[in-house]
């Protein structure tokens, strides 16, 4: 039975802990893929070992663990309400802890493109091991936030794209004007697609009323659920490029044009060098956010261990 060890970790005076042998959680296989015998072997290492016979009798396997609420646990013979609540939470923590420890933390360079390219950024992706209704709620909240941001930034990007060519007071000419117009137009288009997709997905998932439908929905859309956040993030980067071009090559701003920098030395470059600390701290912020989520999982697991 890969990933399961029956060596107990003594924390409650009986030689058993709540999550069992940590090696079976942190270094083992995905608990959702365990068969009945594997799950029962893990259960034997926990303080719920007395219920192993009931789990074996009812053929409870890893694919059932996220659906074991108090009523279902009572129906298979877990009688005390306290044990029902503890066992249901332990199952949730078991799966989420395994998932979180399988997710690597990106380095600073990768974190700069964190929300665009990193596969496990979204809350919906992180909650893949949670209860289906919790997952649905988090996904809808995420889509609502994305649609709000996209709607607000469309009102910034689209007028800028339309006005850049028509109004000469922007102070841009030639290639910089083309870069500015294209970047703002692409940004506005991506924001629009993100807004539309977020609204459609939120409306669709809001109609789902049972756990099996929700699980089937997330399995069906796969990585499509990450498209709105990636479109929005790409749009933000595109908008930043357009604003950077606007600052660097604008004839009517207080900054010295790039073509005239050489007589003024490094002092004249200072406004443009602000890009680098901005990018670095954005990357560090995204990286810290990822680590904070990992820490939250670890603290939750420790709380269950003590409980």
UniProtKB/TrEMBL annotation:
Residues 34-97 form the SAM domain. InterPro entries: SAM, SAM/pointed_sf. This is SAM domain-containing protein. Keywords: Membrane, Transmembrane, Transmembrane helix. Signal peptide: none annotated. The chain crosses the membrane at residues 145-166, 178-206, 227-249, 261-283. It holds the Pfam family SAM_2.
